[in-house]
Amino acid sequence: MQQLLVRPENMKRIDSPELAQAYIDEQVAAIRKQVGEGKVLLALSGGVDSSVVAALLIKAIGDRLVAVHVNHGLLRKGEPEQVIEVFRNQMHANLIYVDAVDRFLDKLAGVKDPETKRKIIGKEFIDVFAEEARKLEGIKFLAQGTIWPDILESEAGIKAHHNAGGLPEDLSFELVEPVRILFKDEVRMVGKTLGLPDPMVYRQPFPGPGLGVRCVGAITRDRLEAVRESDAILREEFAAAGLQGKVWQYFTVVPDMKSTGIKNGKRTDDWMVIIRAVNSVDATSATIEEVPYALLLKIRDRIFAEVKGVNRVLYDLSSKPLATIEYE
Ligand code: XMP
Fold first, then answer.
1. Best of 326, 327, 328 to mutate for ligand 1, by most ligand atoms within 8 A of CB?
2. What range does the domain containing 177 cover?
3. Number of domains present in the structure of the chain
4. pLDDT tens, residue by residue, 214-237
């Protein structure tokens, strides 16, 4: 039996820890009622929605939640480690960590077209998750981090959202969707009340294909490393400057293009790192953040000193439209 399919029209916005706690208590009871003594499977990406779903399920059914974290090699620096630390070490979740890095990067080798890259990443993800699901026995339920805007967008025909994870037909599960009727800010309030760490709760939006769409063109391991390391520097410096949680989305991009530089009196032929920092409400349009110049220069210095193969740092001034937020 699926519970709470539709958000009640008169439902109060969950904007306080008290309201969040009431929602948590209600959902814990609802999950226990739906699942009984059964087990629940969850793809735990480390994003806000799946993390909150995991924390709710751990509270409701403990180790009868089986959370699978697939590392596809396109996550940000430190993210797989954070998922393991928070869910396995602190919350004692029954967590299966799958290192699928080589598998994804081998499949993506030489693929330039952005939509083909997205399709490969999406399909490979389902394949890896389905393989893990087949190894497990006696699981009847699949939890999903569907939220209310997903339902509204699906109804409006804007986006076709994940349905039962897009899994093959032989793997059929009953869905458990404990944040289905919540807006994003409410999911965050529930996550914070459940004790999830701030960097997880206030995480900026991150695309499903991850750093794959920021390593523009055909992904290579060394250029992907340049994206990951420069992104980590940007995030560290934004956090130190108090911009975390204030700027809507910020990241670095490394296109498949080199330019001439000079190091120790010798010519270099290296990549460029592009810094992007934008503000938006719903991602349909965006303006650029006016990042203080001194901060940009500090980030540039760190990128030059710490990231291999880079001889140029640029700041993207483009709003959406005409540019999109991501580069592909
Ligand atoms: P664009 O680049 O279209 O991005 O201005 C708008 C928002 O959507 C995110 N984005 C994605 N999210 N899968 C996702 O889950 C994707 O393939 C994808 N592409 C873009 C982007 O990060 C921004 O927040």
1. 326
2. 17-201
3. 2
4. 999 999 999 999 999 999 999 999
